[in-house]
């Protein structure tokens, strides 16, 4: 009986593990190997250069600028996205009107839109001549605050943060809303009996009740801010002007597909993967225990 059970499990696990190995493990190992080599991507000759790419990597000012921009997106977008998502989730959890379900769908729409469409849409919104942002500022008498939003180094990262926040807020709102609705009502009732106000209920009932969802969301969003923001930035600015919106992923793409330096591009990818691994490990460890656990 035990043997049959193991055979049944193996029958379903082996194909899955093979697919995972071919499409996930092997590319990661190949990238790690290529990061130690010099290869144009078009020749059969791969020259082993050891740590040369990594020495070049840490001496490259563009890498540090790109890393700074990645961290900016990570910190700013995480704070704003999670604050808005929590606020919308709490408001949605308290709504009992017939429009409740419709509002959830509206919040979620940006997340399911094509990233290319969203990028083009926001490029038009930021257009300095006929864009909605500058037009709105001029209409309300704040014309002095208008900018060439995607052409000025001082404001471009803030401008790119807005569509990233707009895309992701609805998704995390749905995650938080589902967790909030699963918190037993008697916890809030007990808190009210003890004299807890709205903020105290939020702090001592809501946050502990959705703590694990917050931890999981932080992991997801870390990957988004460091990795999946590539499409948005590449379509809207391609890292310009003067590399002021460069990300590690856009710089990786440039080295691989413009300069045909796959070894150096792989080294950037290994650096990005290492940063993500460390960040996820820190999040999982620091938030391993529940909120306000002893």
Provide a brief overview of the structure:
By secondary structure, this protein is mainly α. The protein is 72% helix and 1% strand. Strand 1 (37-38) and strand 2 (47-48) form a beta hairpin.
Describe it for me?
By secondary structure, this protein is an all-alpha fold. The chain has a single domain (52-286), classed as MetI-like (MetI-like fold, Orthogonal Bundle). Helix content is 72%, strand content 1%. It is built from 13 helices and two strands. The chain has a two-stranded antiparallel ribbon. Helix 4 (100-112) crosses helix 7 (156-181). It is globular, with a radius of gyration of 23 Å. The protein starts with a helix and ends in an 8-residue tail after the last helix.
Topology overview:
Elements: H1 2-34, E1 37-38, E2 47-48, H2 52-58, H3 61-94, H4 100-112, H5 115-125, H6 132-139, H7 156-181, H8 185-193, H9 198-209, H10 211-228, H11 230-236, H12 248-257, H13 262-286
Antiparallel strand pairs: 1-2
Helix pairs in contact: 1-13, 2-13, 3-7, 3-10, 4-7, 5-11, 7-10, 8-9, 10-13, 12-13
């Amino acid at each position: 009986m035990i043997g049959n059970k193991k055979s049944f499990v193996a029958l379903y696990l082996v194909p899955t593990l093979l697919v995972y190995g071919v499409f996930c493990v092997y590319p990661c190992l190949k990238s790690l190997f290529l990061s130690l080599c010099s290869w144009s991507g078009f020749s059969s000759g791969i020259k082993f250069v050891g740590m040369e790419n990594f020495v070049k990597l840490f001496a490259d000012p563009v890498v540090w600028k790109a890393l700074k921009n990645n961290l900016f997106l990570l910190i700013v977008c995480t704070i704003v996205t999670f604050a808005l998502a929590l606020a919308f989730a709490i408001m949605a959890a308290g709504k009992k009107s017939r429009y409740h379900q419709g509002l959830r769908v509206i919040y979620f729409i940006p997340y399911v839109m094509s990233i290319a469409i969203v990028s083009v849409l926001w490029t038009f919104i930021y257009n300095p001549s006929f864009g909605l942002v500058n037009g709105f500022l001029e209409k309300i008498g704040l014309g002095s605050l208008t900018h060439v939003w995607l052409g000025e180094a001082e404001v471009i990262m803030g401008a790119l943060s807005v569509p990233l926040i707009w895309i992701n807020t609805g998704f995390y709102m749905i995650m938080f809303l589902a967790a909030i609705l699963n918190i037993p009502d008697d916890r809030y009732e007990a808190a009210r009996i003890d004299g807890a106000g709205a903020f105290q209920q939020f702090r001592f009932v809501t946050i502990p009740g959705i703590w694990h969802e917050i931890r999981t969301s932080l992991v997801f969003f870390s990957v988004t801010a460091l990795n999946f923001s590539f499409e948005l930035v590449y379509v809207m600015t391609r890292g310009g002007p003067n590399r002021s919106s460069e990300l590690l992923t856009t710089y990786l793409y440039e080295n691989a597909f413009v300069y045909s330096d796959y070894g150096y591009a792989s080294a950037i990818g290994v650096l990005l993967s290492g940063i993500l691994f460390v960040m996820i490990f820190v999040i999982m460890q620091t938030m391993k225990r529940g909120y306000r656990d002893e």
